[in-house]
Amino acid sequence: MILPIVAYGDPVLKRKAKTISKDYPNLDTLLENMFETMYGAYGVGLAAPQIGLPIRIFLVDTEPFADDEDFSEEEKAQLKTFKRVFINANILKEEGDEWAFNEGCLSIPDVREDVFRQPTITVEYFDENFEKHTETFDGLIARVIQHEYDHIEGILFTDKLSSLKKRLIKGRLNNISKGKIKVDYRMRFPDQKKKR
Asked: Total domain count for the chain?
């Protein structure tokens, strides 16, 4: 089932998410719905707060990046097959020189800005079967994980921008929170919720 994606301005996006246990109700269905929602919005990642749930789950599927001409054949092969569920994730280490990449977010449609992140991360997490993993990722895969991880920490990519950039996009962000935007996927806007 495709769920509405929570828009910028909803308090759930600024809240640090809570860990869950392996007996979380209907976890399989939730993950299925999250993948369906992400694909329906042409995303490469989706975190539970983006569907209104303040819990530490996010998922990533970088296959859409595999067609990008900027990557080597080896990178394309990695991106094509990387699909993962992260539950109760914790980034243990971020390493390397920061690099910029133009990021966007399903909760902040039509806003894209360069964000600086470190290229290599080590993450501890549980998969959909609640098996524990500690893995190191780099490049674009690491970046997508960092972006989604920020969501479960209550951080948006716009929080990482300079104060000048924030001022420049303030009007667009206000329009998103008021629902004054056209998107081709289901969204839930904070101001609409109050009116009902």
From this structure: 1
Cβ atoms of residues 50 and 151 within 8 Å: yes
Tokens for 140, please give them.
């674009």
Catalytic positions, written as ranges:
148
pTM of the model: 0.94
Cα 99 from chain centre: 18
The stretch 73-79 carries a mean pLDDT of 90
Q: What is the mean pLDDT of residues 75-84?
A: 93
CATH number of the domain that 75 lies in?
3.90.45.10
> Could you tell me which residues come within 8 angstroms of residue 144 by beta carbon, excluding any fewer than 6 positions away?
44, 45, 60, 62
* Residue-wise DSSP of 31-42: HHHHHHHHHHTT
Measured from the Cβ of residue 45, the count of other Cβ atoms closer than 10 Å reads 23
Q: Specify whether the CB–CB gap between 113 and 169 falls below 8 A.
A: yes
Residue 138, classified by CB atoms within 10 Å of its CB into exposed (0-12), middle (13-18) or buried (19+), is middle
pLDDT at residue 68 in the model: 82
**Token pair recorded at residue 75:** 């990178």
**Which of the four pLDDT bands, split at 50, 70 and 90, describes residue 191?**
low
The domain containing residue 125 runs over which residues? 5-195
Average pLDDT over residues 94-118: 96
Going by pLDDT thresholds of 50, 70 and 90, the confidence category of residue 36 is very high
